[in-house]
């Protein structure tokens, strides 16, 4: 670590301690070029396991920035980020591994994936926000050097989902002039949204939350409005230097009364191990059960063979206009509260036709399937499918696909059955369950499963058209020699043989992510094709 980095760290630690932070069994030190700084255990870990305590007064949240005497008025006018002590900002990274920082060549590795389109949209959005709203503020502060990508990456790669007292999230602001987003009118659960309530981090409808853990809130919640707990995304200097690990050795908790740390209204890092931490062991936390799509998009890293990986499939809403009886089917979709997209976690495969998971997983899935059987009855003409307990695709999404795939004669059957319920005078409206049952009675599953197979085949085609097969990705990874970045790669061009195996970490992460998407697409396609065969054989 360079002397300048050591000086920055020393200044930051002094700032933390002056502001009441206490290092009781850990220290911050430089890890490596991929992780940056991290927290490590020291000699003499305390008996209570508390490693670090940071007062909540240091938390940086959107609401607390509005109080800033220098930029508060301007930030209230547009509800953007603010500034904090330079000694903290100096410690923050200047480069990141998430896709908005990729070179053009690295970004091409994501073609065909959901993340490629999301990154393109994100970069355009950041540039628009910077030009329209942030540019003048940045000139005033000279903090972010005109870099809206850095501001975005700093916040979303380090933000915690913090349980804070109401007064910390919604402070009393004396000056109200020019406020376009009144503090008392902003939803308590939506402090990460702008005035227009547009989601900040969302891909295909999946909301990405700031990382946290199974945290405990000690002595914060009460019946008083001013003291109730509000969960909000924000930064907490010091604790935000913890890196992620699936096998975390620590968790963070909030101490409202000071009964644990002797520092009221503080957050503390506590060991999760039964035995004392070894000296100089990295103190990691878990960012939660996040797939590689979310990890790469927000934090700039992936986990190979991630057990929490997932696949997102969706039926494009605009395509409904091109199907027969589009208006009627659209009304049915709304009435049934059908889902146009489906998140498929990897662990669902433990419940399917080709499951390799435990018997407990299978038993739980059977129970869930039995809960849905009540929807599969009308006149008794159609039997409950034998495969229902093995079907891994969510019923709300299957409901949407059944409705969209209905043939003309099936639409007539559904309409007739619903007319029987409503009556000639329209005495009542059919319930959600009754409409779903009518659609099932008329259509069965074969049309929906065929449409699902088509969607998954199209997804696989998009993935492979852009970057080859799953096997080709595996071969690239097997032969890869990962280096820090693309600039390092060009400096080693002398050895052509070695050069073929070198790849930047960004490219490696992209290939790991897209290979996982291809693997999940293949496995869920196999499930869908088998379910379709059973459905056709059973007349469903």
UniProtKB/TrEMBL annotation:
Gene Ontology process terms (BP): methylation
A GO molecular function held by the record: protein-lysine N-methyltransferase activity
TM region(s), chain numbering: none
Keywords noted in UniProt: Methyltransferase, Transferase
Methyltransferase as UniProt keyword: yes
Domain of life: Eukaryota
PANTHER family in the cross-refs: SET DOMAIN-CONTAINING PROTEIN, UNCHARACTERIZED PUTATIVE METHYLTRANSFERASE
Name by which UniProt lists this protein: Ribosomal N-lysine methyltransferase 1
Organism annotation: Gossypium arboreum (Tree cotton)
